[in-house]
Amino acid sequence: MNMKSSRLSCIFSTCLISLLTLSLIGEAEAQNLNDQMSAANLAWKQRKYDKSQAILERITTNYSGRAPMLYGAKFGTIWYRKGLSELKLANQAKRNNAGEDSDKWFGEAAKSFEECYKKYPNGAPGMAKSTNTAHKACLQRWAEANMGLGEYKKAIDLYKKFMAEREPRDKILPSPGGYYINLAICNFLMEKAKIPEGIRNFETALKNKDKMRTSDTGIFAAFLALSQSVIKENNEAAMVDFLNKNRSDISMPPYQRYEYTPVFLKLAGNALESDMYKAAFNLYAMIPNTQEVIDDIQVRLNQLSGRKGIVDGVKIIEASRLESGLTKMKAKLRSGDPDDVKAISAMAYLHDQAGNQRGVFGAMEQLELYYNKSKKRESHLFSLVRVSSLIGEILTTEHYGSIFLKDFPESDKVDSVRRLMLSSLFFGGEYSKSLEVAEVLIEKVAKPSEQHDICLFVLGGSHFYLGNFDEAQPFLDQHVKEYPESKLIMHSEYFQSSNLTRQQYWERAAKLLDVFLGKYPEPGTNIYMPNALYDRANCHFAESEYDPALVILNRIENEFSSSAVIDMTYNMKGNIFESRAEYDDAEKYYILALNTAERGENRVVAGEALSYLIGMLGAETQGKKKAPNPRIKDAVPYYDKFLKEYADSPYKPQVVVYAMPAMRAVDREQEGLDNLQAMITELAGKKRQFFLEEVVNAYSDAFLETKGNTPVMLKKLYYNFPGIDLSNKRTLALLRIAIIGVYEDQIKKAEKEKKADAVMRYNADIKALFSDLKTEFQPKDLTNFVLIRVADYLREKTSAPKQALPYYEELLTRSDKTGLEFKAMLGVADVKGRSDSKADNKDAVRMLDEVVKRAKDDVGTQANAMFRMVEISDKIEDWQSVEKHARAYLDAKHRKKAALVSYLFAKSFDKRNKSNDALVFYSMVYARYMGYIRISAPATKRVMEILWDRNLNEGAVVGEKTLTMSDRQQAYQKIGYAFIASTKKIRENSKEITEAEKNALDDVNALVKKYERSGPVKNMEQVKEEREENRRRGRRND
């Protein structure tokens, strides 16, 4: 039974018991009333609302005259119950399109609720003492009845009255969400509609759907009322605006939504007649697919398993209603022209009106694919052929044209179809369109076939030219592999190799480019020659292989000086010379790139060349020795040229950052600062906020370098930055990260000045800022840089590093990772490496290996990845891998974790019982890193243990060396005792030594004492005596 019905039944039963307990009621009369109320309650439970109403009508007729005196306010609940039965009857009549009956019952319900409220108030004089528990609730039901009667102003007044009079125990009916839905409907449908007020109430119900228990049927009813209102008021913008903000919240399962289809069709038709195309489009979009409705109804019926109905949240699912709907929908589908056909045809018309031929194509293809039994199929199919030709879908035009010719050979449109089957595709440059066609065809064409060959090529090539490099690669690889004899193979092989450079898979790209250039060495037939050479040079440049890069760039300069990549070639040569501190040559080539790009009207490369010139000439220092730059002021003319002629360049953010030192040098610091501030505001308004982090950091530095400015002032500015809206989450989060960066710098400064309070204060502020970032901003709202900062903090500075994963994973799902994917991959791998799952640990090593191979431009991340590979391999006891990764780390000359890596390297031999190797490498560790007690102590202990267990005597030969002391004497005297003596001051005096380090030293000392007591070795007293005796006799001490 419906929970609401059950509750109402309880109200009814309570009412009955209370009435019968009144002493003024005669026994027979009470028994008669009891029987009638029980019958009414049973009828309600059985959903026989007409019977329930009739019984309650008889009760109120017979008893109302004496009710106030005999039963008091409690009798009002019977009027309330009667009104509820009448509301049910009204809604049933309305659903069955019985308008007169509907109006009748809404009217009767209104009277019943009015009687309950006005005649039976609680605490009224002259009435028997009892309580009308429905006294306030009936105001809401009275309002519902008035809504049914179209008296929307009265309904609103009653709702307001209820809210003014209600007490905390008075529930909002039918739910808080339903209350706001009803207010919205009233505002939409009242004689002079109040659309903004209605939308405000509607959005309240939508945005709090779960909390307020807003039903799907209520949402759709409100949307229909809104639609009716905007059409009547000719206010299409209100609907469009509303849907832009709330489209995702307006949802209803197909099994319920189909009942609204006739209304949607009617309203959409009205909108079309009023030239309200956007409104019509949105209304047609609400009509569910007939097959989806059938499937959904069938699922619900299966869930019922023979029951008459169930309650699902705020919904009641009735078997009879579902079965009736199923029969109607199947009949419509069999007819060949269900409501979908009308809706899709109308959508095609709307797309055509908007000039969106792609939309027309999609709609017409849907009609052909799913509704090809329609009586209008010939017209639909011809329109599909026509529009596919217009948009350049040659394969689709051929496909559907062939179907048309086969199925309608006698049509008067046959000749037109044959002409329309001619069009162009990929090589016409319509990459988005060709991609859409290929995506449709790829699953339909035979494999292998010429069509499949073309589809694969178009998918890969289109993605490549559209910049979807991750999506392009699988298609290009597949095409090269499956169709090596294709007429398109040269194009595909170039796209395959060049695409890898975009993904920064430099090593693989280089190999494929070498193969490509070897296979197609003639520029006359290889149209991609200069591009492929440039890509190959780029691979060398990325690997810091400058000499071979210059060889290729010189070839482009000499042999392909008129190619499209020549200006980029000059820029790359400038980059190489600048990286070598050959500034004159760098300047020469940047100027060459600028002039060449300007002649070719390539504004992007020209802006890039200017940015390089400004960055190089405007640097405060030059070279490895950081010598002052004597030409810093020379950057300013280029800066002025850039802002005057290339202010729309994507390199503008870099330029305003790079120019700041030069602007300060020519006393234009405030102008530079203002430009940085304006750049932050400009980038904040863009979807792709490239280089925003660097601009913000540069602004922070410049702001704090200005006399009188403080970190507190900067924080206040960043919390209320000019021109940045509070909804701009990405930029607001980035500004907070910038504050954190400033505070971190202040901590370093305070530590140097030994200001402990300042360090503590800034650390607390940083912790609070990170906490705010986590709670106030969702990962999707953050820039890549902020994602990394927040994720790294959660991973490194909290006890729950898994909290970092959503931030890393969000970055990795983005197409534009701005070069931070390796840091994100490192973060994910680090978290997985901490897992107790061996599978996670192995996956972590795999990810880290990819980072090491690809992060050529990020040495720090590469080094951290190599170190974690060592650590995780040690954790899972893969000693062979520990050796391999540790050796790679040490060979690469990474220093930060060299001590620990060296220890784990030695340990890897120890664990494989390669004792001599372990002995050598442990000895190197404790000798080189003696002050690093965490590793030197365990390394010393293992050297002692290995020597003790080997137990070679003096004179034994190890390799080419003869032992001058026995292993055990050496373990005790030369290793253990010497180590304890050397670290004694650290153990006793160091304030920074940890308990763990003390314990490690104590372990070595305990082993020394154990060996000392063992007997086979001379203790140090004996050693000293022996040395003294040797000295006295003139003998040499070893």
Q: Could you give a short description of this structure?
A:
With 1038 residues, this protein is mainly α. 71% of the residues lie in helices and 2% in strands.
What does this structure look like?
By secondary structure, this protein is mainly alpha-helical. Among the domains are: 1-138, no CATH class; 710-818, no CATH class; 821-908; 930-1038. 71% of the residues lie in helices and 2% in strands. A hairpin with a 4-residue loop joins β3 and β4 (627-628). Residues 1-26 and 418-425 have low confidence and may be disordered.
Helix and strand layout, with pairings?
Elements: H1 3-20, H2 27-45, H3 49-63, H4 67-70, H5 76-95, H6 99-119, H7 137-148, H8 152-165, H9 176-189, H10 195-207, H11 209-212, H12 216-233, H13 236-246, H14 254-257, H15 261-273, H16 277-285, H17 290-304, E1 309-312, E2 315-318, H18 319-335, H19 339-353, H20 357-370, H21 377-390, H22 394-407, H23 414-420, H24 431-441, H25 450-465, H26 469-482, H27 489-502, H28 506-519, H29 529-542, H30 546-559, H31 566-579, H32 583-599, H33 603-617, E3 621-622, E4 627-628, H34 635-645, H35 652-658, H36 660-665, H37 669-684, H38 692-705, H39 711-719, H40 729-752, H41 756-776, H42 784-797, H43 805-813, H44 821-834, H45 838-854, H46 859-875, H47 879-891, H48 898-911, H49 915-928, H50 933-950, E5 957-958, E6 961-962, H51 967-982, H52 984-989, H53 995-1012, H54 1020-1033
Antiparallel strand pairs: 1-2, 3-4, 5-6
Helix pairs in contact: 1-2, 2-3, 3-5, 5-6, 5-7, 6-7, 7-8, 8-9, 9-10, 9-12, 10-12, 12-13, 12-15, 15-16, 16-19, 17-18, 19-20, 20-21, 21-22, 22-23, 24-25, 25-26, 25-27, 26-27, 27-28, 27-29, 28-29, 29-30, 29-31, 30-31, 31-32, 31-33, 32-33, 33-34, 33-35, 35-37, 35-38, 37-38, 38-40, 39-40, ...
